[in-house]
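Q: Start with the shorter request: fold the first protein.
A: Done. Sequence, then structure:
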Amino acid sequence: MAEGEEVENKQVILKHYVRGSPKESDMEIRTGKTKLKLQEGSSGAIVVKNLYLSCDPYMRNRMSKMEGSYVESFTPGSPIVGYGVAEVLDSSHQNYKKGDLVWGMTTWEEYSVITSTEGLFKIQHTDVPLSYYTGILGMPGMTAYVGFFEVCSPKKGERVFISAASGAVGQLVGQIAKLFGCYVVGSAGSKEKVDLLKNKFGFDEAFNYKEEADLNVALKRYFPDGIDIYFENVGGKMLDAVLLNMTPYGRIAACGMISQYNLEQPEGVQNLFCLVTKRIRMEGFLVFDYYHLYPKFLEMIIPQIKEGKITYVEDIAEGLENAPSALIGLFSGRNIGKQVVAVTRG
């Protein structure tokens, strides 16, 4: 390709800010033009070809206009932004060269120019599927690791409950907790997902929350002696029921609250006084505060994957044109496992 030649660049554009449940029609596929060579004199930037994009629940918040949030809102009329895996095509950054593989923040398009490489990670282990760097070896894997070990301070034999347990983060928390020596129960939204938790991920028990008339009763069935650790992914009614079932000095890692993201008015939680009476520690956390632990995490997780002690399920949508549908599917639980978009294979 000639120096400075332009190529077509398919993009996923957010058309407008979203209220309530997002729809595919809130996004559109647009084809623009881009150059695969950096301009002369640019420094600290890279041009990448995006290989895999990650669909994550937190992205719903970025589709709305937010003030003072931990992440910025997307810009209507521009491509949406998220975690991805990419190959470097050109670089004016001293740490990256052509051919390097990276994971981190990129834009939802075929080719991206990344000017801020803070939070980008060079991929060293290529003997595992590259798509894993959107999940088990990327942000969700780190989230599971730090939420369980750093926030929950687990002890062997403790009783652990995980909501949205078949998702990108939940499936890993459960397996890590089992390897650590805990009793693990997960909730999910379909029979297929419950079977996955018990038969593939090795959870001790799992249940379909949609089939339970009373979540408090359901939790008592699986935790007659109470819950020591709750990995919180959904919020709302589930959190309310869990608070009633926590043991004294229990720990709750507040990772996400997907049941609330599409509500104009979030649901109230009624049982918060349990935090006081049971001396429960409930702590929210953001994974990027812990990225300095990434090498330590890889040291732990890579051998477990290679020895087959941890398995990972992905739901891969093929092609950028199917990215809006894949992202929207997260909020109705349509995906089985980690939702990934394959922009191009390799």
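Q: Next, the second protein, separately.
A: Sequence, then structure:
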Amino acid sequence: MELLPHDVVEYIFERLDVKTLLKFTAVSKQWKSSIIQCRSFQTRQMLHRKQSGKTDVVLVSLYDGAGSNPNIEALRTLVVGSTVSVKIPTTWENKFYQVCNSSCDGLICLYYRYNPSIVVNPTTRCHRTIPPCNYQLGAFHRIRQLVSPSPGFGKDKICGTYKPVWLYNSAEVGLKIKSITTCEVFDFTTNAWRYIVPASPYLIYHSQDPVYCDGSLHWFTKGDETNILALDLHTETFQVIPRPPFLHSLLRLIESIICSLHDRLCVSERIWPEQVIWSFDSEEKTWKKIYSIDLKTTPSWRRNNRWRTFTPLSVLGKDKLLFYDGESSDGPLVTLDLRTKYCDIAYKCKVKAYKALCYVPSLISIL
């Protein structure tokens, strides 16, 4: 390998998995410093992994009211199609955390009430602790909420910086201020939270988590008319995406889920007897129906005598979709063959309560 040109070595390394590259850091200091630890190389290696066609999932144990539990596995990863999943040891092993709805460059963001948040790379196990934001320090002590807002986690595509964000309806969390909403963003360079001013002029729907896609975080708005609100993480400004043709009321919103498939903003909507997935074209500013699922031919969608809204996680090849039953504490990962209409359980998690996210095994870190 030492006789090969540097660019040839990089070309080979880009096609290796992260675990192998981590082993190589102990083999050669030159490989470690000049290639593997280089952010541009890490980005290329991650993109190659995305193009490989493999779908990786991280499972995060969620809080269920039981407090600390010595049997809890904080993180577990698996490759869809493989029967083996891998437990990821962590320093917070006996604690429960909620998880932001989107993974970004192989990083995930964990949070819980007024505790410090954690941004972690499940593959390398590198992590960084984030101090509580002002909402966490104050709102949970001022008011007991039936539904609490969830933070978002994404990336400024221009500067390449990662940003955890809390956006919440001011009055609903007990703030007596004039602004309709309050928005806080974490700055990794200063290790501190700051406010985005002005915040969103629209109330948001707290019952659904924000989703990151193409440099922006997205929320459903709350009010007489339902829209999708976007926060550009570079300019830190809000705008409303053109109205989807299928969202008009709160009743319809309950059966709808924002998600990201193939790095495009999507909304999955259940209207009996179908579950339809719409995709947003950011250039044409239009919505297009890309998948339609006949619920009558998918018995896996029916559990405990009622039909459930499964969350789309990923597209597997041309004819399969991966779903997650987010309404059940022990819901499985389910694959659906769009051609044959055959449903199959891709993975049944033994953890009582967990959340599933698609992610890309990467070397990228925010340390």
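Q: Describe the second briefly.
A: Residues 39-50 form the longest helix (12 residues). The first strand starts at residue 56 and ends at 61.
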